[in-house]
Description:
The protein is an alpha/beta fold. It has twelve helices and 19 strands. The two termini are 16 Å apart.
Amino acid sequence: MPTAHPHPKDLYGGRLTIDPDAIAANWAYLNGKLNGATECAAAIKADAYGTGQEAAGKALFKAGCKTFFVAVPTEALALRKTLPDAVIYALDGLFPGTVEHFIAHNIRPVLGSLPELEEWAAVCKAAGKSLDAALHVDTGIHRLGLSPDEFAVSMRNKGLLGPFTPSLIMSHLACGSTPAHAMNQRQLDQFRDITKPFAHIPKSLANSAGVLMGPNYHFDMVRPGIALYGGQAIETEPNTMKPVAKVEARIMIVRDVPEGDTIGYGARQTAQRPLKNAVVAAGYADGLLRRASSSDAGSGGFGMIGGYKAPILGRISMDMITLDVTDVPEHLLVRGAYVEMLGPNVAAADLAAYAETIDYEYLTSLGRRFERVYGPLT
Length: 378
Ligand SMILES: *Cc1c(COP(=O)(O)O)cnc(C)c1O
């Protein structure tokens, strides 16, 4: 597969490697947790969580995934070009005045409000065709979705729903990352109650966490996202997914810092002993979030070089990060060498803990300026 920015590789400050086979393997792993009646779809929004929609889409389709969820219509249209035969749902539903694009490209909207439902029904009526769409019912997250009352009324209203039958009824978990949260059971019970009268329509509740929470959450279709891309869906359990992305930044300079001197913007970190630091060519503009910076008040994230941990020193800048390599053998500290800043040895979820965020944000922020390579994370 060609790289997205085909300059000679030495011209880049760093490299982002994505392994589509690992995405496929993660899908197969999750699919293996389902009984045969449940379909494993894929959430592929936000450029496949930063990993590249085209490569991820192809790998997933080849692995056996047939149904894909994107967020906005532009993502749906791009994916349609890659996967002419897939079922594609747009989670954000119908934006006003866009219905013709959904029909022309065979995209199914996830309808989450009465005006959207009315618009879709009117189009079906005018076309004399029952066009597929999902109905989203809100079971407590209060973002998109019909309220349970609106859902019940809509399902009884022949004038509204008459022109088409929903191809899917779905809802979304608010607290899947913490399975012990009481909200999960409440949403499960409510989703079951609400959808019970509609045995003939497929149902879907689970994201990645829902898949891992077990069969009660699976229904007819599951919609994992983060786990496909190697992320940690459940905060309280070890991550069993294969890593999919690796970020490496190149060493520009290695220098000594005398004890008592400070490093980086704001002079926030003081050398407590004579240090050696390596400055690498990636920063928050590359998605290495500034919140993972280090200071005298608390340590930040880290990189890995040749099996050695290199803690971040001081603030993460836009284009560079300073790493403590005092204890790294000299022969590894070569100008131009690559330091792993995220990947198999630097879990996004671990970095996220330093940055007070989640690995979803790391992945979706990554690498517009890196050399992009598709292949194994060797
Ligand atoms: C993003 C999303 C998913 C996938 O969630 P993960 O936590 O990444 O598995 C599933 N369903 C909906 C409605 C979503 O917005």
